[in-house]
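ok trying again, last paste got cut off:
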Amino acid sequence: MKRRSHQITGKRGDSSWVERTASRTMLRAVRFKDEDFSKPVIAVAIPYTNGTPCNDHIRNLGDLVQNEIEAAGGKAIVFGTPVVSDGISMGTEAMKYSLVSREVIADAIELMTEGYQVDGVLTLSGCDKTIPAALMPIARNDLVGLTLYGGSILPGQHGHQELNIVSAFEGIGAHSAGKIDTRELHEIESCACPGAGSCGGMYTANTMASAIEAMGMSVTGSSSHMAVDRNNQLSVDKCRDAGESVRALMKLLKKGITARQIMTRKAFENALTVAWALGGSTNAVLHLLALAREARVPLTLKDISDITARVPLLGNFKPFGRYLMNDLHALGGVPMVMKVLMDAGFLHGDCLTVTGHTIAENLTSAPDCPSGQDVLFPVSAPYAPAGRHIRILYGNLAKEGCVLKQSGKKLNTMSGPAKVFNREEDALGAILSGKINSGDIIVIRYEGPKGGPGMREMLSPSAALMGAGLGDSVALITDGRFSGGTHGIMIGHVAPEAQIGGSLALVQDGDRIEINLEREELNLVISEAEFVSRNKNRQEPPQRYQSGVLAKYARLVSSASTGAVTSSFD
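nice, full thing came through this time. structure:
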């Protein structure tokens, strides 16, 4: 394999040896020695911040990875990336920067890997957007590389009850509905997150980590290992993941295996299958579409719909179920889930992975699914039958498509009067003040990729509905998106979005909206003549941001139906 880092590892006698002397001179100042100039140079992206538990331990994990690289005969170029915490920014203007950060992080990693022309790259991740962002530049430039997830948080404890971050959001709704007092809410807040690691349910972080392991772009078992132990020290499993990831990368370098040899169409099908079998987040739709574009793999919403229609829901995980990732870890983790699915014919076992082996070869030592537990249901008797988790709907409100998270609920056709809001905060205020009634259909618009901009997650209003006891009787529709912690009757990613002329902009208070799962449609029930009249009188609102990163993002970003990406390959 031709070395990319020739400019700092050139030998005397090469035509450009003199020019490379300057590069080596600068690197000597940062502790490179003579012997280092003949080693493979590995970029290590470390999205560290003490601003969120998801990434609070990532610097320590990055130090461990760097040491493992040095021990394996490589030389590390270490750098950081931004991190925007979804949980902390939720419900505020700050959340507009969350999805934007996915693009910024991916671009930052590309700048560093290409700016230093490294031989390989190992990217770490923690909070939601850092996970797809860690893989996007590897796919974009077809690098030799892989990614390592920082791991899941342990559950909090309050009395005999296990807590997680969504417990706090739903506690706010319960408090507003008079179901718990202020003291109880404060105790939930204080206990929900006991240490480092990403949110513990089958929310976006654990969904994407599991999907990427199933895709073959992280080492076996790493997605279901805990981040830290009860002393808030890196877990033994996560330390082992660091060493295995480095050894896998060195093997990829030796064999010349690049990302797109692994990230094939069949690998994406494996990723989607595992994500939906576990009951994963709607955000996986957005992120896997984005990753497929970067890897030049054709993947559409229709393809995703076809896959979800045949995958049974096996996982009994929060937000809709009972359990957290630590419960799955105790049973054998994601490798056990993949073995169950492969044995039942749902996975392509011949797909290559970053270990240098196939999926089937990686799973030879994976445990069987234990009996006598209800964390993961068998394929023969699933938590819910195929097609009852993620649904892709179309119709006159979503001509390009939208995403419903059904999570096994029995739901066929629902219709009701629209309660329309142009901002998330206004909808949340209406819920908390008791202005939403059973049977209503909440519409939150101008929160899409361009309209927000940034496509905020609607965890605050959705959790408030659950806390107020309205989760089974009120639907929420938005051109924004949802947290992986969201459950209830939630439809997001409506495309085209309101900002660019989508029909969501035409909905008025009191209009009847129909959610029809028999036809897989989302429709505004008004006459065609009324549609024409409202469209004629529609005025596009001005962009909310005229400068800065949000304005730049709004100009570049694609539809949610294609992954809300800023890279163009047309």
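cool. The radius of gyration is 24 Å. The longest helix spans residues 96-115.
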